[in-house]
Amino acid sequence: MDCTALLDKIKTHSRTLGFTGFGIAEARLDADQAHLQDWLAKGQHGQMAYMARHGDMRAQPELLQPGTLSVISVRMDYGTDPEQAWTTLASSDKAYVARYALGRDYHKLMRQRLKQLAQFIESEIGFFGYRVLVDSAPSLERALARNAGLGWIGKHTCLIDKDEGSWFFLGEIYTDLDLPGTSLAPQGYCGTCTRCIDICPTAAIIAPNRLDARRCISYLTIEHQGSIPEEFRKAIGNRIFGCDDCQLVCPWNKFAKVHAEPDFTARNRLDEASLLDLFAWSEAEFLRRTEGSAIRRTGYINWLRNLAVAIGNAEPSSEHMDALREKCNHDDPVIREHAQWALQQLTAKLKI
To answer: What are the helix (H) ranges across the chain?
Structure first.
């Protein structure tokens, strides 16, 4: 098998499938494993117990998929108009949803495309062992992508490419093929820039390349269960699902490409929806409108919790206060607590 010719074919076909980056990484992540273990030991993963499970598998692909010799790493752009994002963040009566979650759940789309890429490889060389991953099993995908030459891990812990920015998804194919790596010379072009650290609303980036998830708005609005600590509620602003501030402010994203994938187009007007419109969704409506969406992950209770906090951070209006009063009688104690807190915030603003 001519590996160079094969890699050229795979790379070319990956682009026909919509992948904007392609590389091969060796299945060794010793330094990254040590970083992960230290992060876990400090409890900076919060309630994400799954991060602590199968820790060795995350850093040793051959344990997750026996026989793995190399990892195919790909990326797919989801970049959108940054000006619209800033405008929404500045509009306290509108809801801000992380750009990656506006359209169809990327996990399903990328997994399907990666399977098609694996089938293409099989058509070229015959049967081989592989496993497709899109954030679906213990894997250090950013470290693998870095080792495959797709960029460097920035101070905000996202992967950055100097020609593409950071608005992209990652996926992998673990293979038993001994493919030559495509890693470049060590990259790292953040320099002395600290914009991502400086802008973080909750100071979650506690040091370069070190994120305390317990302070992160993405974690608090998606992964965290129960009551959101009061110390972070005002800083959440109108962000109801995730946060993009560290990427929006990154200078390298001036090179990011606006996505051309129809499935990533905003659904349910989530790029411009009002807080009150979303707060009025019933559970049945939430489930219907978020079918096939990453937003399903947070669940209906947390959805209302997050919206209550955002409304509490909005400018007071009779409509906002009426909506919160209704939720103050909700059956769920978490929703009641956050609605009551939000109502107190609006009432206090009226007295100023």
So the answer is: 3-16, 30-41, 55-59, 61-64, 82-89, 106-125, 141-147, 195-199, 217-218, 230-236, 245-248, 275-279, 283-289, 299-312, 318-327, 333-351
Q: Are 217 and 243 in contact (CB under 8 A)?
A: yes
**pLDDT for res 27:** 79
84-101: average pLDDT: 97
Q: How many CB atoms lie within 10 A of CB 102?
A: 21
pLDDT tens digits for range 18-57 = 999 999 998 788 889 899 999 999 999 999 998 988 778 8
pLDDT greater than 90 at residue 214: yes
Q: Round to whole Å and give the CA distance between 274 and 94.
A: 4
**DSSP secondary structure letters along 101-159:** GSSS-HHHHHHHHHHHHHHHHHHHH----EEEESSSSS--HHHHHHHTTS-EE-TTSSE
Decide: 133 and 174 in contact? Cβ < 8 Å: yes
Please tell me the distance from the alpha carbon of residue 273 to that of residue 57, in angstroms, as a whole number: 40
Cβ proximity of 174 and 130 under 8 Å:
yes
Q: Regarding predicted confidence, which is higher, 56 or 292?
A: 292
**Pairing between β-strand 96-97 and β-strand 239-241 as defined by DSSP bridges:** parallel
Strand, helix or coil for residue 215: helix
Give me Rg for the CA atoms of the chain: 21
How buried is residue 284: exposed, middle or buried, by Cβ count under 10 Å (0-12/13-18/19+)? Answer: exposed
Tens digits of per-residue pLDDT, 155-188?
999 999 999 999 999 999 999 999 988 876 667 8
**Does an H or E element contain 70, and which?**
strand 70-77
Residue 268, C-beta contacts closer than 8 angstroms, at least 6 positions apart: 289
Chain centroid to CA 36: how far?
18
The one catalytic residue among 38, 56, 81, 135: 135
Q: Annotated catalytic, 135?
A: yes
CA atoms within 13 A on the CB side of 69: 8
Span between the terminal Cα atoms of the chain, in Å = 75
How much is the average pLDDT of 107-117? 96
CA distance 203 to 291: 33
Strand partners for 159: 153
